[in-house]
Amino acid sequence: MDIFTQQLINGLVLGSIYALVALGYTMVYGILELINFAHGEVTMIGAMVALSVIGVLLGASPDLPGLMVVIAGLLVAIPACMALAFGIEKIAYRPLRKAPRLAPLITAIGVSIILQNVAMLVWGRQYVSFPAILPRGQHEILGAHITDLQIAIVVLSLLSMAGLWLLVEKTRLGRAMRATAQSKEVAELMGVNVDRVISYTFIIGAAIAAIAGVMVSAYYGLAHYYMGFMLGLKAFSAAVLGGIGNIAGAMLGGLLLGVIEALGAGYIGDLTGGFLGSHYQDVFAFLVLILVLVFRPSGLLGERVASRA
Amino acid sequence: MNAPALLQVSAVSKRFGGLAALEDVSLSVGRGEIYGLIGPNGAGKTTLFNCMTGLYDLSAGHIHLEGVPLHGRKPHHIVEAGFARTFQNIRLFANMTALENVMVGRHPRTRAGVLGAVLRTPGARAEEAAIHNRARELMEYVGLKNKGRTLAGHLSYGDQRRLEIARALATEPRLLALDEPVAGMNPTERRQMSDLFLRLRAGGLTLLLIEHDVKLVMDLCDRVAVLDYGRKIAEGEPALVQRDPAVIAAYLGGDEA
């Protein structure tokens, strides 16, 4: 088996999930210049809600086709996350719209902690396992294995990104979002209801996060009330890598970070003579974050953040 | 002019801390008028625009457009009511194309929501096409044909001013407020702009104009109001106002002399 190809595939799969979560960070930052640290937790809630629905459905009739059950879970998780993000923005961030920037940032961390603890109370401290109900076909390409699930994750991610891209570039709402990102004041003077655009930004980001949450729990086969923390940090790193505020950058940053992490995990043992193992893979995301912040704080595709940081 | 005024500004004051930027300013603009707002720098002209468009809360007073109160309303509601503006220091969406800038201006007159947009329903597609067409018409109207794909920030200065007007027109205003629309333009461009203003008026639009170019104000405006230190010191036909001793004193610094 070719380790390089295999890790490349694994990295792209993981990276497409990072990219989806990173989109939520970058869209909100683009409009409010707020790093919504609660976004990782929204992803976690998406996974948890989907797993609950899946559990209920399987409990009611275990013979339902697995794919349909998971899709049903997803279809409940998406609106649940949208409602959650709508509420978070309205209750926690909107009252602080005119406050110094540190205030909403700290609030975001607070919201994140609250959501973790609520999830712990509702779903418990233990890992919730993702039932093995999805098709488990495996294919071989270029000497590496790729599963049906991995293919589905990549395809669904690409579809979500394409949909978002169309929405932002080609629709009335997307234009309003871009206008608001450039100047809330002028957008408002052209008749854009800025509060509503901001709500939509959170809601759309959360819908994508719900998809990512379900995919990541299906991929690892489990979910946990704390899973949003690390996932959120990595997605945030991906958004910074691509240039925070830049939608294409979040997609690129996510994919790149996934590949860097997977290749790093694959080779770190060889490179350090076995001193460090693949469980050090988390190091790479933050190494990348530090390097980007030191050498190119505006990110790969970003151009405007340096003056504001 | 006995018909009820299109725009009624009643006893508006705006204070920033201890500084009175506007003090008890009243004026009324009739339908189809070109109304000039002049005065020395810092007299409060732009502040008045910002009060009228909802960027600033009034400290006192009322503003009505066709009898509908504008004071205390959000900027996007004021645009919906039919009040559009341009900016003294051009404020386009520089990273969007010229055409997209105008298309944003269609926002208050269109409805498509997220669902329609995502599902590409026939209704949403038709509306998007209509937005596109209207924006192109307006680009042509202000003399920016074939510049739709250029990024707004890359347009020449004069074209940026024109684009701001097209974007404001896209909101279908009854009253268009222009903040120094010919500042920095050469005589040819100025003439083109005043032709544009006359065409707009002929089309039924009312114009409110902040301008320092005396000739333009004299030629175009039906009436002018003069602001000085936040107070209205004169109002009337341009030729009369020009001879008003208080106005002459304000411009020549009579107070300090």
Task: Describe the protein's topology.
The complex is a heterodimer of chains A (309) and B (257).
Chain A: H1 3-32, H2 39-60, H3 66-93, H4 102-123, E1 128-129, E2 138-141, E3 144-147, H5 148-170, H6 172-182, H7 184-189, H8 194-220, E4 222-223, H9 227-242, H10 247-271, H11 282-295
Antiparallel strand pairs in A: 1-4, 2-3
Chain B: E1 7-16, E2 19-29, E3 34-38, H1 45-52, E4 60-65, E5 68-69, H2 75-81, E6 83-85, H3 98-105, H4 114-119, H5 122-141, H6 157-170, E7 175-179, H7 187-202, E8 206-210, H8 214-220, E9 223-228, E10 231-236, H9 238-243, H10 245-252
Helix pairs in contact in B: 3-5, 3-6, 5-6
Query: N-to-C terminal Cα separation of chain B, in Å?
Result: 38 Å
- Tally the beta strands of chain B: 10
CATH-level-2 architecture of the domain at 7-82 and 173-252 in chain B: 3-Layer(aba) Sandwich
The CATH superfamily of the domain at 7-82 and 173-252 in chain B is P-loop containing nucleotide triphosphate hydrolases
Shape of chain B: globular
Which terms summarize this structure?
heterodimer; A: 309 residues; mainly alpha; ABC transporter involved in vitamin B12 uptake, BtuC; two-stranded antiparallel ribbon; 4 strands; 4% strand; disordered C terminus; B: 257 residues; alpha/beta; Rossmann fold; 6-stranded mixed sheet; 4-stranded antiparallel sheet; 10 strands; 39% helix; 23% strand
